[in-house]
TrEMBL record:
The keyword Oxidoreductase is assigned to this record: yes
Annotated signal peptide: none
UniProt-listed GO biological process terms: fatty acid elongation
CDD domains, per the entry: SDR_c (cd05233)
Similarity comment: Belongs to the short-chain dehydrogenases/reductases (SDR) family.
Keywords: Oxidoreductase
Organism: Thiothrix fructosivorans
Gene3D superfamilies xref list: NAD(P)-binding Rossmann-like Domain
GO molecular function, one term: oxidoreductase activity, acting on the CH-OH group of donors, NAD or NADP as acceptor
Superkingdom of the source species: Bacteria
InterPro entries for this protein: NAD(P)-bd_dom_sf, Sc_DH/Rdtase_CS, SDR_fam
Protein name: SDR family oxidoreductase
Amino acid sequence: MSNSPRLAIITGAGSGIGKATAFLLAQHLQTLVLMDTDASTLADLKTQLNAEHSLLRVDTYLLDVTQEMAVNAVFGQIADKYARLDILINAVGGGTAGGPPGAKLEDMSLAQWQTLLHLNLDSIFLCCRAAVPLMKRHQYGRIVNFSSIASHGRRDKVSVAYAASKAGVDGFTRKLSREVAPYGITCNAVAPGITLTERIDEKFWQVRSDTEKHEVLESIPVGRLSTPEEQAAVAVFLASEAASYLTGQIVEVSGGI
């Protein structure tokens, strides 16, 4: 990806894969719009990015992307301020918001089920719906969603709600890619394996015994967990000119699982 006047939005930018993506994209763009629900992490990220990239314009929005009115309002502000949107990285998501990550069906309440679908799927729907009209104005756009290899439903340590929500992301990505392709817009998804973000380290990895950790690593052909930067690198590629003929794809970044 070469330097250009393009503008990118990253949701869930304050931590994890979203934060790693922000640092990588900052090397290639002039304007980066970061969204998160944590004001302090957004402020810290903006300070770090400005220190490393003096010519980069960083804009931040405190936003819960599962809230329809708030999403519409913020994207409207961006449209008024910049009159364009070129790249949307939907990095919000997770499997721990709806109770224990590996909760069985009979132990899961309707509220827990709805929480994960709301977080992982509604957020992408709302942001894409707000972004696509802006991309159509310039007949150009790159949408990158984050799914998971859990969407196949074959991971024992995740809940049915998480698997269903990520399978929904896959289907949404493929279908939207067909709708927007005539307007110069691509839509792809990255499907990570276990990635050692701050949240996963705390809520999944550190609570495992040495035996359980060994079993997890044995299940991954490359023998280790992914870093957020490795996932971010694929997202940045999908947002680049090098991926201009790639759309409707779910790219699994799982170490060979």
